[in-house]
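Appendix C: a fully annotated inverse folding record. The material below is reproduced so that readers can follow the format used throughout the book. The structure is listed first as tokens, followed by the designed sequence.
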């Protein structure tokens, strides 16, 4: 973990410089880190390890948007799982209404419950949105604010809004879910 003791700004600048040097030289390197942001920024391929074994070896984009296991989905990035019932090979009924996916083919699971991954960037602030939620936590991140929301059905969601959408804890907000690529796994109680 060569950058772990550096301040954030120096770490980001130095990691980009080193990546550029390695690319220019055509050199392959292995970076070991616990910092997902660092791995995503520097690496063409990332391996996610679980109990000493690589669980998924893929591009950063695919690890985030197409996790192959529930462990990778839960480990990479932030997100929550909501329950949905499969109504057709790529269609689900959820407490937030019907959802469809261009990537989930659940033909063998029709009529069964599945857990659908929602990332914070799948929720958009919308004053006319169908989902009402109360802000229960907020984490200011500069250009963005990560909100933990609680719906009227007591479901917790994570939402990443531009920071000019400045909401206080306890305030009610309206959102819409715009999940273009749903990832689902067998339902777990």
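Designed amino acids, in order:
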């Amino acid at each position: 973990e060569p950058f772990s003791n550096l301040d954030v700004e120096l770490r980001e600048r130095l990691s980009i410089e080193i990546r550029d040097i390695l690319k220019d030289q055509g050199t392959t390197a292995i970076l070991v880190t616990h910092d997902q942001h660092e791995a995503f920024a520097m690496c063409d391929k990332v391996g996610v390890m679980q109990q000493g074994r690589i669980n998924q070896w893929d591009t950063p984009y695919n690890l985030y948007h197409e996790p192959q296991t529930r462990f990778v989905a839960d480990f990479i990035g932030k997100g929550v799982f909501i329950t949905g019932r499969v109504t057709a090979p790529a269609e689900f009924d959820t407490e937030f209404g019907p959802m469809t996916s261009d990537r989930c083919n659940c033909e063998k699971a029709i009529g069964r419950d599945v857990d659908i991954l929602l990332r914070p960037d799948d929720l958009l602030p919308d004053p006319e949105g169908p989902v009402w939620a109360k802000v229960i936590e907020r984490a200011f991140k500069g250009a963005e604010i990560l909100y933990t929301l609680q719906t009227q059905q007591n479901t917790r969601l994570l939402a990443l809004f531009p920071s000019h959408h400045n909401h206080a804890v306890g305030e009610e907000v309206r959102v819409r879910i715009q999940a273009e690529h749903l990832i689902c796994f067998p339902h777990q109680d």
